[in-house]
Design brief:
Blueprint: E1 6-11, H1 19-30, E2 36-40, H2 46-55, E3 58-62, H3 67-73, E4 76-77, H4 79-84, E5 89-93, E6 96-100, H5 103-115, E7 122-126, H6 130-142, E8 146-150, H7 154-163, E9 168-170, H8 174-178, E10 183-186, E11 210-213, H9 222-229, E12 234-235, H10 238-253, H11 259-270
Parallel strand pairs: 1-2, 1-3, 4-6, 7-8, 7-10, 8-9, 10-11, 11-12
Antiparallel strand pairs: 3-5, 5-6
Helix pairs in contact: 1-10, 1-11, 5-6, 5-10
The protein binds NADPH dihydro-nicotinamide-adenine-dinucleotide phosphate.
């Protein structure tokens, strides 16, 4: 494995990203003389930017809106990136641009942390975009019984369900998706802004269901706060974010990062634990 010459996050926008904070803490703790930089790259400039980075021997992460284009640009993929058809982690190997998707492992980690030893057989999934695909792939790994997808674009929900026929089906209504679920996952951007509606009313969620929000903010999201206030077990996207980054680090360097240092860096930046 060749050490990356440069480490970057490519997305648009990226200024708000917490990834440089915890990746730089991990690099420092490992004594690696690299800085992780965030690059704001517009969609039309993405292919050229990624090719140039590959020529430089760079590695890094890819975020909204470039995960699917990155998948198309990589010539080698891990099995899980193939399954999700999106890449959030790239590196070069013998001149080949390689892609992985650590959102799946990040989500599994976050879910296991909140589920403890509860069974997660039925998943209600809100949204049908890139991170929803990662949740479907995670549900396959978990051998979940069913993922019920509800999205504002019914066609997109059907298309996603069609890619994961063993576990997923599209639902026409929120109530149908939520009925009897063990966990409800928000994979929409609802909750990122102060005036957003909640992804689903708390009272419509079965009492014993876990509430997992992929969105995160410095403070907990309004949905997670409302769920906790109603006595539910809930988690926001911070723990998934940290773990997907830790798994990316392992891909680039072949050893595990100092997760405690990464957590400390997040805590210092946002004023709370992941
Ligand atoms: P995508 O744009 O790929 O998909 C978003 C989905 O949400 C689509 O189904 C979209 O519908 C729907 N949607 C968008 N806006 C609204 C709205 N106002 N009301 C209802 N539905 C809406 O995004 P991602 O899947 O990449 O990301 C989704 C969320 O997950 C974001 O908050 C992101 O920050 C978070 N995320 C967190 C990660 C973590 O590590 N914690 C990792 C990855 C993502 P339509 O097709 O109609 O636009």
């Amino acid at each position: 494995m060749t050490r990356p010459a440069r480490l970057v996050l490519i997305g648009s926008p990226v200024a708000h990203s917490l990834s440089p904070t915890f990746q730089n803490a991990a690099l420092e703790s490992a004594g690696l003389p690299l800085r992780y930089e965030a690059l704001d790259v517009a969609p039309e400039a993405f292919d050229r930017a990624l090719d140039e980075l590959a020529r430089e021997g760079a590695a890094g992460n890819v975020t909204v809106p470039h995960k699917e284009p990155a998948y198309r640009r990589c010539t080698r993929h891990t099995v899980i990136a193939e399954r999700v058809a999106a890449v959030n982690t790239f590196w070069t190997d013998a001149g080949a641009l390689c892609g992985d998707n650590t959102d799946v492992g990040g989500f599994l980690h976050a879910l296991r942390a909140v589920a403890d030893d509860r069974a997660v057989a039925r998943v209600a999934l809100l949204g049908a975009g890139g991170s929803a695909a990662a949740v479907c792939a995670a549900a396959e790994e978990l051998h979940a019984r069913e993922v019920r997808i509800v999205a504002r674009g019914a066609d997109r929900a059907r298309t996603l369900a069609g890619r994961f026929p063993r576990v997923a089906r599209a639902c026409e209504s929120l109530d149908d998706a939520l009925a009897g679920c063990d966990v409800v996952v928000n994979a929409t951007p609802l909750g990122l802004r102060d005036d957003d509606a909640l992804p689903a009313p708390i009272e419509s969620i079965p009492r014993r269901a876990l509430v997992v929000d992929l969105a995160y903010r410095p403070e907990e999201t309004a949905w997670v706060r409302a769920a906790r206030d109603a006595g539910r077990v809930a988690a926001d996207g911070l723990s998934m974010l940290l773990e997907q980054g830790a798994l990316s680090f392992e891909r680039w360097f072949g050893f595990a990062p100092d997760r405690a240092a990464m957590r400390r860096a997040i805590r210092e930046r946002v004023g709370r634990d992941r």
